[in-house]
Amino acid sequence: MTGAAVVGLVVNPVAGLGGAAGLKGSDGVEVQCAALAMGATPRAGERAARAVRTLMARRPGTRVLTVPGRMGEDSVRAAGAPYDLVRPPSGHPAGTSAEDTRRAVAALAGVDLLLFAGGDGTARDVLDAVRALGGQAPPALGVPAGVKVYSGCFAVSPAVAGFVAAEFDPARTADAEVVDLDEDAYRRGLVSPRLYGSLRVPAARAALSGRKTGSSGVAPATAEGVAREVVARMRPGVRYVLGPGATTRAVGRTLGLATTLLGVDVVERAPEGGRLVAAKVVERAPEGGRLGAAEVVERASAGGRLVAADVAEAELFGLVSGTESVLVLSVIGGQGFVLGRGNQQVSPRVLDAVLHGGHSGRLLVLATQQKLASLKGRPLLADSGDEDLDKKLGGHVQVITGYRESTIYRICAASEEFDG
User: Fold this and answer.
1) Structure letter (DSSP) for residue 46
2) Which of 207, 234, 254 is the last residue of a domain?
3) Bridge partners for 269 per DSSP
4) What is the pTM of this model?
5) Domain contains 291
6) What CATH code is carried by the domain that includes residue 58?
7) Domain shared by 87 and 194, yes or no
8) Which segments of 168-284 does DSSP mark as H helices, in order?
9) DSSP 3-state helix, strand, coil percentages of the chain (rounded to 5)?
10) pLDDT truncated to tens, each residue of the chain (420 aa)?
11) Which residues lie below 8 Å from residue 154, measured CB to CB, with a gap of 6+?
């Protein structure tokens, strides 16, 4: 941007709240209350502040326009940036609803570029508001802060959103897809992204996440081959943290366990010649916005032990602290994320407890050759919420691509992927 550009900011302060809690989304008051009861901490405001801080460092003369309170003002103040306020015509002053987001976007219609912090649901709300504004709508760019970020209208990280905003040229825009999931169905293990439309975004393809692509076209035998290799490498007495995904669930099947598709599970391999029984499965059910009692059932397996299923961040931290553990994480197709998208249970403190400053042997990354090819040479990405920790993961990592097959692939912090 040239001259005194005006950048608007809207924040969905509850975006991503359910991620670390293992609730697979943040839509709905009951889910948000359940996440808070489990100790979840809102991060969207902090991630928005990171984007603004980067923007102002690269283009100090930028004028920031935002709305009061948690939906923008608090983040700009945390970034130490000057700003001006606009007040939406109606709505609750501390509101966080979809309608509050739409009103905020409408109030910021005159900006050169609109930054919005949230997830796919927030992108849908922004799209609705943009459609209502018609030709008066500004280009927009998402600051990733949700549990699942499938849409292509988000920058790869908050810092990158700030870079792109600082370099934005109004004459260079492109369309990016907005997709979302039915969260209730998602919690039941049903993944069916739906295309809702497109937003006009800065033309910076390398800086955008791109739309998430699924694994439906991958032959089951391919996933099973990856799983066989993972199990062949497992050692008795070590806890293995299986992230979400069809490939990691195949690891569970190979061990003879019923692991979850979209949750984070902890497993162990049975000793040679032994048979482990009485594995524990922990399930939680929100009841009126509060956590229900834990339900424990017994499972038997000849190959492995399911230590805990569908764990929240706090439970996971307790399970890996002081115990030799390994992270088993799959790559998100089309985007390349290994950390920070759908697996927020693997928090910075969990990472630190498992990796102890290095990932050699303690991080197993899974991806079919098809997934790696879809990245077209772009690196794998880490966006755990701790940029310093993400940078320590940078370099190269072994990616298991099949039985007795692996390759070395570059991984970097998502904040470093775009050089502006």
Assistant:
1) H
2) 207
3) 304
4) 0.81
5) yes
6) 3.40.50
7) yes
8) 183-187, 220-233, 246-254
9) 30, 25, 40
10) 555 789 999 999 988 775 565 555 555 556 556 555 565 577 899 999 999 999 999 999 999 999 999 999 999 999 999 999 999 876 555 567 889 999 999 999 999 999 999 999 999 999 999 999 998 899 999 999 988 788 999 999 999 999 999 999 999 999 999 998 665 555 455 556 788 999 999 998 888 887 655 554 455 678 999 999 999 999 999 999 999 999 999 999 999 999 999 899 999 998 864 443 333 333 344 444 433 333 333 333 448 999 999 999 999 999 999 999 999 999 988 889 999 998 989 999 999 999 986 666 799 999 999 889 888 889 999 999 899 999 988 999 999 999 999 999 999 999 886 544
11) 123, 141, 142, 143, 144, 161, 208, 209
Domain count, the chain: 2
Specify whether 361 is located in the same domain as 294. yes
Q: What is the span of the domain harbouring residue 163? A: 6-207
Burial class for 302, CB neighbours closer than 10 Å (0-12, 13-18, 19+): exposed
Q: Are strands 173-180 and 140-144 parallel, antiparallel or unpaired?
A: unpaired
> Which residue's structure tokens are 């919690």?
187
Report DSSP letters for 84-129, one per residue: EE---SSS-TT--SHHHHHHHHHHTTTSSEEEEEE-HHHHHHHHHH
My answer on whether 328 and 388 are in the same domain is yes
Residue 197, H or E segment: strand 194-202
Q: Encoding tokens for residue 366?
A: 């899974």
On whether residue 176 sits in a domain, the answer given is: yes
Residues 6+ apart with CB under 8 A from 96: 12, 13, 14, 70, 71
Measure the N-to-C terminal CA separation of the chain; round to a whole number of Å.
13
- Tokens standing for 419? 């050089």
- Residues composing the chain: 420
Q: Please state, as a whole number, how many other Cβ atoms lie within 10 Å of the Cβ of residue 26.
A: 29
| Alpha-carbon span 131 to 110, nearest angstrom | 15
Q: Which pair of structure tokens corresponds to residue 220? A: 């089951």
Same domain, 235 and 195: no
- Whether residues 266 and 190 share a domain: the answer is no
Instruction: Classify burial at 399, counting beta carbons within 10 Å of its beta carbon; exposed 0-12, middle 13-18, buried 19 or more.
Output: buried
